Amino acid sequence: MNIKVRLTILNFIEFAVWGAYLISMGLYLGGEGLGSNIGWFYSVQGFVSLCMPALMGIVADKWIQAQRLLALCHFFAGLFMIACCFYGLSAAGSVSFGALFTLYTISVAFFMPTIALTNSVAYNALEKEGLDTVKAFPPIRVWGTVGFICSMWAVNLLGFKSTPYQFALSGGLSMLMALYSLTMPTCPTNQSGEKKSLVDALGLRAFALFKDYKMALFFIFSMLLGSCLQITNGYATSYLEAWGALPQYADSLMVKYSVIVTSISQMSETLCILLIPFCLSRFGIKKVMLMAMLAWTLRFGFFAIGNPGSGFIFILLSMIVYGVAFDFFNISGSLFVDKETDLSIRNSAQGLFMMMTNGFGATIGMLCAQFVVNHYVFNLPEGSDLLPGWQTCWYIFAAYALIVAVLFAILFRYKHNPK
What we know:
With 419 residues, the protein is mostly helical. The protein folds into two domains: 1-187, Growth Hormone, Chain: A, CATH 1.20.1250.20; 206-419, MFS general substrate transporter like domains (Growth Hormone, Chain: A, Up-down Bundle). It has 19 helices and no strands. Helix 1 packs across helix 7, helix 4 (52-62) crosses helix 6 (97-128) and helix 14 packs parallel to helix 17 (312-340). The longest helix has 33 residues, at 346-378.
Protein backbone atom coordinates (compact mmCIF):
# COMPACT_ATOMS: atom_id res chain seq x y z
CA MET A 1 0.00 0.00 0.00
CA ASN A 2 1.20 3.54 -0.80
CA ILE A 3 2.94 5.11 2.21
CA LYS A 4 0.78 8.23 2.00
CA VAL A 5 -2.37 6.11 2.25
CA ARG A 6 -0.93 4.18 5.20
CA LEU A 7 -0.06 7.41 7.01
CA THR A 8 -3.48 8.86 6.21
CA ILE A 9 -5.08 5.87 7.98
CA LEU A 10 -2.65 6.30 10.87
CA ASN A 11 -3.65 9.95 11.36
CA PHE A 12 -7.34 9.18 10.89
CA ILE A 13 -7.34 6.62 13.71
CA GLU A 14 -5.08 8.73 15.96
CA PHE A 15 -7.50 11.63 16.11
CA ALA A 16 -10.62 9.44 15.99
CA VAL A 17 -9.46 8.16 19.39
CA TRP A 18 -9.61 11.71 20.75
CA GLY A 19 -12.83 12.74 19.03
CA ALA A 20 -14.75 9.86 20.61
CA TYR A 21 -14.89 11.62 23.99
CA LEU A 22 -13.29 15.08 23.93
CA ILE A 23 -16.43 16.99 22.91
CA SER A 24 -19.10 14.78 24.49
CA MET A 25 -17.50 13.87 27.83
CA GLY A 26 -18.94 16.95 29.56
CA LEU A 27 -22.47 15.69 28.81
CA TYR A 28 -21.76 12.35 30.47
CA LEU A 29 -20.10 13.94 33.50
CA GLY A 30 -23.00 16.36 33.95
CA GLY A 31 -25.48 13.49 33.79
CA GLU A 32 -23.59 11.67 36.53
CA GLY A 33 -23.65 14.70 38.82
CA LEU A 34 -20.01 15.56 38.13
CA GLY A 35 -20.71 18.76 36.18
CA SER A 36 -18.82 20.86 38.73
CA ASN A 37 -15.70 18.77 38.06
CA ILE A 38 -15.68 19.01 34.24
CA GLY A 39 -12.79 21.47 34.38
CA TRP A 40 -10.55 18.95 36.15
CA PHE A 41 -11.08 16.33 33.44
CA TYR A 42 -10.17 18.78 30.67
CA SER A 43 -7.35 20.54 32.49
CA VAL A 44 -5.51 17.27 33.18
CA GLN A 45 -4.76 17.02 29.44
CA GLY A 46 -2.77 20.23 29.73
CA PHE A 47 -1.10 19.12 32.93
CA VAL A 48 0.23 15.84 31.49
CA SER A 49 1.27 17.71 28.33
CA LEU A 50 3.84 19.57 30.43
CA CYS A 51 5.95 16.45 30.90
CA MET A 52 4.75 13.24 29.23
CA PRO A 53 5.41 14.13 25.54
CA ALA A 54 8.95 15.25 26.40
CA LEU A 55 9.65 12.13 28.46
CA MET A 56 8.28 9.79 25.79
CA GLY A 57 10.29 11.69 23.19
CA ILE A 58 13.48 10.92 25.12
CA VAL A 59 12.51 7.24 25.34
CA ALA A 60 11.85 7.14 21.57
CA ASP A 61 15.17 8.87 20.86
CA LYS A 62 17.27 6.59 23.04
CA TRP A 63 15.68 3.20 23.69
CA ILE A 64 12.38 2.23 22.00
CA GLN A 65 11.64 2.71 18.30
CA ALA A 66 8.95 5.37 17.88
CA GLN A 67 6.42 3.10 16.11
CA ARG A 68 6.71 0.54 18.93
CA LEU A 69 6.45 3.16 21.64
CA LEU A 70 3.40 4.57 19.85
CA ALA A 71 1.80 1.11 19.98
CA LEU A 72 2.69 0.70 23.66
CA CYS A 73 1.26 4.09 24.64
CA HIS A 74 -1.97 3.43 22.75
CA PHE A 75 -2.32 0.00 24.35
CA PHE A 76 -2.24 1.45 27.86
CA ALA A 77 -4.32 4.49 26.88
CA GLY A 78 -6.97 2.19 25.43
CA LEU A 79 -6.84 -0.21 28.38
CA PHE A 80 -7.53 2.50 30.95
CA MET A 81 -10.14 4.21 28.74
CA ILE A 82 -12.03 0.91 28.48
CA ALA A 83 -11.69 0.64 32.26
CA CYS A 84 -13.41 4.05 32.48
CA CYS A 85 -16.33 2.59 30.55
CA PHE A 86 -16.63 -0.52 32.72
CA TYR A 87 -16.44 1.54 35.89
CA GLY A 88 -19.03 4.01 34.58
CA LEU A 89 -21.43 1.19 33.74
CA SER A 90 -20.96 -0.62 37.06
CA ALA A 91 -21.33 2.55 39.15
CA ALA A 92 -24.10 4.18 37.08
CA GLY A 93 -25.83 6.85 39.14
CA SER A 94 -23.16 6.87 41.83
CA VAL A 95 -19.93 7.42 39.90
CA SER A 96 -17.08 8.55 42.17
CA PHE A 97 -15.04 11.51 40.93
CA GLY A 98 -11.83 10.05 42.41
CA ALA A 99 -12.13 6.63 40.78
CA LEU A 100 -13.16 7.84 37.32
CA PHE A 101 -10.70 10.73 37.33
CA THR A 102 -7.81 8.41 38.23
CA LEU A 103 -8.56 5.95 35.42
CA TYR A 104 -9.09 8.80 32.95
CA THR A 105 -5.88 10.61 33.96
CA ILE A 106 -3.76 7.50 33.45
CA SER A 107 -5.31 6.97 30.02
CA VAL A 108 -4.73 10.59 28.99
CA ALA A 109 -1.15 10.50 30.30
CA PHE A 110 -0.41 7.72 27.81
CA PHE A 111 -2.47 9.24 24.98
CA MET A 112 -1.09 12.79 24.87
CA PRO A 113 2.46 11.73 23.82
CA THR A 114 1.02 9.77 20.90
CA ILE A 115 0.23 12.93 18.94
CA ALA A 116 3.92 13.86 18.72
CA LEU A 117 4.93 10.21 18.22
CA THR A 118 2.47 9.88 15.31
CA ASN A 119 4.09 12.92 13.71
CA SER A 120 7.55 11.43 14.21
CA VAL A 121 6.52 8.12 12.65
CA ALA A 122 5.00 9.95 9.69
CA TYR A 123 8.04 12.19 9.14
CA ASN A 124 10.36 9.18 9.27
CA ALA A 125 8.27 7.20 6.79
CA LEU A 126 8.03 10.12 4.34
CA GLU A 127 11.76 10.80 4.52
CA LYS A 128 12.51 7.14 3.84
CA GLU A 129 10.48 7.46 0.66
CA GLY A 130 12.41 10.59 -0.33
CA LEU A 131 9.35 12.84 0.03
CA ASP A 132 9.29 16.47 1.16
CA THR A 133 7.58 16.43 4.58
CA VAL A 134 6.56 20.10 4.34
CA LYS A 135 4.56 19.40 1.19
CA ALA A 136 3.48 15.80 1.83
CA PHE A 137 2.44 15.89 5.48
CA PRO A 138 -0.30 18.61 5.66
CA PRO A 139 -2.71 16.78 3.29
CA ILE A 140 -2.15 13.64 5.38
CA ARG A 141 -2.71 15.47 8.69
CA VAL A 142 -6.03 16.92 7.52
CA TRP A 143 -7.43 13.38 7.62
CA GLY A 144 -6.74 13.35 11.35
CA THR A 145 -9.37 16.08 11.72
CA VAL A 146 -11.70 14.05 9.50
CA GLY A 147 -11.23 11.11 11.86
CA PHE A 148 -12.01 13.35 14.82
CA ILE A 149 -15.25 14.48 13.14
CA CYS A 150 -16.27 10.92 12.23
CA SER A 151 -15.91 9.83 15.85
CA MET A 152 -18.03 12.76 17.02
CA TRP A 153 -20.78 11.80 14.57
CA ALA A 154 -20.57 8.14 15.59
CA VAL A 155 -20.91 8.99 19.29
CA ASN A 156 -23.97 11.15 18.61
CA LEU A 157 -25.72 8.79 16.16
CA LEU A 158 -25.02 5.67 18.27
CA GLY A 159 -26.50 7.34 21.35
CA PHE A 160 -23.18 7.33 23.27
CA LYS A 161 -22.91 11.08 23.93
CA SER A 162 -24.31 10.88 27.48
CA THR A 163 -23.02 7.41 28.34
CA PRO A 164 -19.67 5.80 29.25
CA TYR A 165 -19.77 3.87 25.95
CA GLN A 166 -17.93 6.82 24.39
CA PHE A 167 -14.91 5.74 26.47
CA ALA A 168 -15.24 2.18 25.13
CA LEU A 169 -15.27 3.49 21.55
CA SER A 170 -12.15 5.55 22.22
CA GLY A 171 -10.43 2.64 23.95
CA GLY A 172 -11.27 0.25 21.12
CA LEU A 173 -9.85 2.66 18.57
CA SER A 174 -6.70 2.98 20.70
CA MET A 175 -6.25 -0.79 20.64
CA LEU A 176 -6.69 -0.75 16.86
CA MET A 177 -4.12 2.05 16.64
CA ALA A 178 -1.69 0.02 18.79
CA LEU A 179 -1.84 -2.86 16.32
CA TYR A 180 -1.70 -0.67 13.23
CA SER A 181 1.31 1.28 14.56
CA LEU A 182 3.39 -1.89 14.49
CA THR A 183 2.98 -2.05 10.69
CA MET A 184 4.71 1.31 10.23
CA PRO A 185 8.29 1.59 8.90
CA THR A 186 10.98 1.22 11.55
CA CYS A 187 12.10 4.42 13.24
CA PRO A 188 15.76 4.49 14.28
CA THR A 189 16.93 5.21 17.82
CA ASN A 190 20.03 7.21 18.63
CA GLN A 191 22.68 4.71 19.73
CA SER A 192 25.63 7.08 19.35
CA GLY A 193 26.20 7.24 23.07
CA GLU A 194 26.31 11.03 22.95
CA LYS A 195 25.34 12.40 26.34
CA LYS A 196 23.01 15.33 26.78
CA SER A 197 22.25 17.29 29.88
CA LEU A 198 18.74 17.04 31.30
CA VAL A 199 18.21 20.66 30.27
CA ASP A 200 18.98 19.78 26.64
CA ALA A 201 16.99 16.54 26.72
CA LEU A 202 13.86 18.31 27.93
CA GLY A 203 14.31 21.20 25.51
CA LEU A 204 14.65 23.79 28.28
CA ARG A 205 17.29 25.79 26.38
CA ALA A 206 14.42 27.48 24.57
CA PHE A 207 13.50 29.34 27.77
CA ALA A 208 16.40 31.65 26.91
CA LEU A 209 14.01 33.16 24.35
CA PHE A 210 12.31 34.96 27.23
CA LYS A 211 15.29 37.32 27.26
CA ASP A 212 14.00 38.71 23.97
CA TYR A 213 11.15 41.19 24.59
CA LYS A 214 9.26 40.29 21.42
CA MET A 215 9.46 36.53 21.95
CA ALA A 216 8.71 36.81 25.67
CA LEU A 217 5.54 38.78 24.93
CA PHE A 218 4.59 36.32 22.20
CA PHE A 219 4.87 33.32 24.54
CA ILE A 220 3.04 35.10 27.35
CA PHE A 221 0.14 36.01 25.07
CA SER A 222 0.21 32.48 23.67
CA MET A 223 -0.42 31.23 27.19
CA LEU A 224 -3.18 33.79 27.75
CA LEU A 225 -4.92 32.84 24.52
CA GLY A 226 -4.24 29.16 25.14
CA SER A 227 -6.56 29.53 28.12
CA CYS A 228 -9.46 29.56 25.64
CA LEU A 229 -8.57 26.30 23.88
CA GLN A 230 -10.49 23.75 25.96
CA ILE A 231 -13.45 25.84 27.19
CA THR A 232 -15.88 25.01 24.40
CA ASN A 233 -14.61 21.41 24.23
CA GLY A 234 -15.63 21.00 27.84
CA TYR A 235 -18.85 22.98 27.99
CA ALA A 236 -20.33 23.56 24.50
CA THR A 237 -22.49 20.43 24.28
CA SER A 238 -23.70 20.80 27.89
CA TYR A 239 -24.81 24.33 27.05
CA LEU A 240 -26.50 23.34 23.79
CA GLU A 241 -28.44 20.56 25.50
CA ALA A 242 -29.45 22.86 28.38
CA TRP A 243 -31.86 24.45 25.89
CA GLY A 244 -33.77 21.15 25.92
CA ALA A 245 -35.23 22.16 29.28
CA LEU A 246 -37.51 24.55 27.39
CA PRO A 247 -40.45 22.65 25.85
CA GLN A 248 -40.28 24.52 22.54
CA TYR A 249 -36.67 23.42 22.03
CA ALA A 250 -36.73 19.92 23.54
CA ASP A 251 -36.87 18.21 20.12
CA SER A 252 -34.79 20.73 18.19
CA LEU A 253 -31.95 19.51 15.99
CA MET A 254 -29.43 21.53 18.03
CA VAL A 255 -30.36 19.66 21.20
CA LYS A 256 -30.77 16.18 19.69
CA TYR A 257 -27.57 16.42 17.62
CA SER A 258 -25.48 18.69 19.82
CA VAL A 259 -22.25 16.78 19.15
CA ILE A 260 -22.81 16.80 15.38
CA VAL A 261 -23.59 20.54 15.46
CA THR A 262 -20.36 21.10 17.39
CA SER A 263 -18.44 19.12 14.74
CA ILE A 264 -19.02 22.02 12.34
CA SER A 265 -16.18 23.67 14.28
CA GLN A 266 -13.77 20.97 13.15
CA MET A 267 -15.07 21.20 9.57
CA SER A 268 -14.32 24.93 9.62
CA GLU A 269 -10.87 24.14 10.99
CA THR A 270 -9.97 22.00 7.96
CA LEU A 271 -10.94 24.82 5.58
CA CYS A 272 -9.25 27.65 7.48
CA ILE A 273 -5.89 25.87 7.32
CA LEU A 274 -5.86 26.73 3.60
CA LEU A 275 -6.12 30.47 4.38
CA ILE A 276 -3.08 30.64 6.63
CA PRO A 277 -0.27 30.96 4.01
CA PHE A 278 -2.10 33.83 2.26
CA CYS A 279 -3.00 35.66 5.50
CA LEU A 280 0.49 35.34 7.00
CA SER A 281 2.22 36.65 3.86
CA ARG A 282 -0.34 39.42 3.37
CA PHE A 283 -0.96 40.62 6.93
CA GLY A 284 1.86 39.28 9.14
CA ILE A 285 1.80 37.45 12.46
CA LYS A 286 0.48 40.33 14.59
CA LYS A 287 -2.67 40.87 12.53
CA VAL A 288 -3.22 37.13 12.09
CA MET A 289 -2.96 36.57 15.86
CA LEU A 290 -5.35 39.48 16.42
CA MET A 291 -7.78 37.83 14.01
CA ALA A 292 -7.57 34.68 16.14
CA MET A 293 -8.17 36.61 19.37
CA LEU A 294 -11.15 38.46 17.92
CA ALA A 295 -12.46 35.15 16.55
CA TRP A 296 -12.38 33.71 20.09
CA THR A 297 -14.35 36.75 21.24
CA LEU A 298 -16.95 36.06 18.55
CA ARG A 299 -16.89 32.32 19.29
CA PHE A 300 -17.97 32.92 22.88
CA GLY A 301 -20.18 35.94 22.11
CA PHE A 302 -22.20 34.08 19.47
CA PHE A 303 -22.77 31.26 21.95
CA ALA A 304 -24.19 33.81 24.41
CA ILE A 305 -26.76 35.27 22.01
CA GLY A 306 -27.63 32.09 20.09
CA ASN A 307 -30.50 29.66 20.65
CA PRO A 308 -32.09 26.67 18.84
CA GLY A 309 -34.77 28.88 17.26
CA SER A 310 -34.30 32.25 15.61
CA GLY A 311 -30.81 32.51 17.10
CA PHE A 312 -29.56 29.27 15.56
CA ILE A 313 -27.64 31.29 12.96
CA PHE A 314 -25.44 32.63 15.77
CA ILE A 315 -24.67 29.09 16.97
CA LEU A 316 -23.61 28.22 13.40
CA LEU A 317 -21.50 31.38 13.17
CA SER A 318 -19.81 30.42 16.45
CA MET A 319 -18.86 27.07 14.93
CA ILE A 320 -17.60 28.69 11.72
CA VAL A 321 -15.34 31.28 13.40
CA TYR A 322 -13.74 28.49 15.45
CA GLY A 323 -11.59 27.61 12.44
CA VAL A 324 -10.06 31.09 12.49
CA ALA A 325 -9.78 31.12 16.28
CA PHE A 326 -7.99 27.77 16.47
CA ASP A 327 -5.93 27.56 13.27
CA PHE A 328 -4.83 31.18 13.05
CA PHE A 329 -3.53 30.88 16.60
CA ASN A 330 -2.04 27.39 16.77
CA ILE A 331 -0.65 26.92 13.27
CA SER A 332 0.34 30.53 12.59
CA GLY A 333 1.98 30.73 16.01
CA SER A 334 3.96 27.58 15.32
CA LEU A 335 5.12 28.94 11.95
CA PHE A 336 6.14 32.23 13.59
CA VAL A 337 8.23 30.38 16.19
CA ASP A 338 9.87 28.36 13.42
CA LYS A 339 10.78 31.54 11.53
CA GLU A 340 12.00 33.60 14.48
CA THR A 341 14.19 31.06 16.31
CA ASP A 342 17.67 29.75 15.64
CA LEU A 343 17.98 26.29 14.08
CA SER A 344 19.83 24.98 17.15
CA ILE A 345 16.80 25.45 19.43
CA ARG A 346 13.97 25.36 16.91
CA ASN A 347 12.53 22.03 18.04
CA SER A 348 12.80 23.08 21.67
CA ALA A 349 11.10 26.39 20.86
CA GLN A 350 8.19 24.49 19.31
CA GLY A 351 7.98 22.44 22.48
CA LEU A 352 7.95 25.65 24.52
CA PHE A 353 5.13 27.06 22.39
CA MET A 354 3.08 23.90 22.98
CA MET A 355 3.91 23.99 26.68
CA MET A 356 2.73 27.58 27.03
CA THR A 357 -0.49 27.03 25.04
CA ASN A 358 -1.67 23.45 25.55
CA GLY A 359 0.14 23.04 28.86
CA PHE A 360 0.04 26.08 31.13
CA GLY A 361 -2.56 28.02 29.14
CA ALA A 362 -5.13 25.26 28.67
CA THR A 363 -4.74 24.00 32.25
CA ILE A 364 -5.07 27.37 33.96
CA GLY A 365 -7.81 28.50 31.58
CA MET A 366 -9.93 25.40 32.11
CA LEU A 367 -9.69 25.58 35.90
CA CYS A 368 -10.68 29.27 35.81
CA ALA A 369 -13.53 28.47 33.44
CA GLN A 370 -14.67 25.72 35.81
CA PHE A 371 -14.85 28.28 38.65
CA VAL A 372 -16.96 30.62 36.49
CA VAL A 373 -19.33 27.91 35.21
CA ASN A 374 -19.75 26.37 38.65
CA HIS A 375 -20.63 29.78 40.11
CA TYR A 376 -23.19 30.72 37.46
CA VAL A 377 -24.51 27.27 36.46
CA PHE A 378 -23.71 24.10 38.38
CA ASN A 379 -23.93 25.54 41.91
CA LEU A 380 -27.44 26.93 41.38
CA PRO A 381 -30.29 25.30 43.37
CA GLU A 382 -31.90 22.28 41.72
CA GLY A 383 -34.69 23.27 39.36
CA SER A 384 -33.19 26.68 38.54
CA ASP A 385 -33.17 28.06 35.01
CA LEU A 386 -29.55 27.49 33.94
CA LEU A 387 -29.66 29.33 30.62
CA PRO A 388 -29.11 32.90 31.98
CA GLY A 389 -26.10 31.57 33.89
CA TRP A 390 -24.67 29.91 30.80
CA GLN A 391 -25.08 33.11 28.80
CA THR A 392 -23.31 35.10 31.52
CA CYS A 393 -20.39 32.65 31.36
CA TRP A 394 -20.04 33.05 27.60
CA TYR A 395 -20.09 36.85 27.91
CA ILE A 396 -17.32 36.64 30.54
CA PHE A 397 -15.18 34.42 28.30
CA ALA A 398 -15.80 36.75 25.32
CA ALA A 399 -14.77 39.79 27.40
CA TYR A 400 -11.58 37.99 28.48
CA ALA A 401 -10.61 37.20 24.86
CA LEU A 402 -11.31 40.82 23.85
CA ILE A 403 -9.11 42.19 26.67
CA VAL A 404 -6.27 39.89 25.60
CA ALA A 405 -6.67 41.12 22.01
CA VAL A 406 -6.54 44.80 23.04
CA LEU A 407 -3.45 44.28 25.20
CA PHE A 408 -1.73 42.30 22.43
CA ALA A 409 -2.47 45.06 19.89
CA ILE A 410 -0.92 47.65 22.22
CA LEU A 411 2.09 45.75 23.59
CA PHE A 412 3.28 43.40 20.83
CA ARG A 413 5.54 45.14 18.33
CA TYR A 414 6.36 43.43 15.06
CA LYS A 415 7.09 44.97 11.69
CA HIS A 416 5.78 42.88 8.81
CA ASN A 417 7.26 43.09 5.34
CA PRO A 418 4.67 41.78 2.85
CA LYS A 419 6.08 39.49 0.18
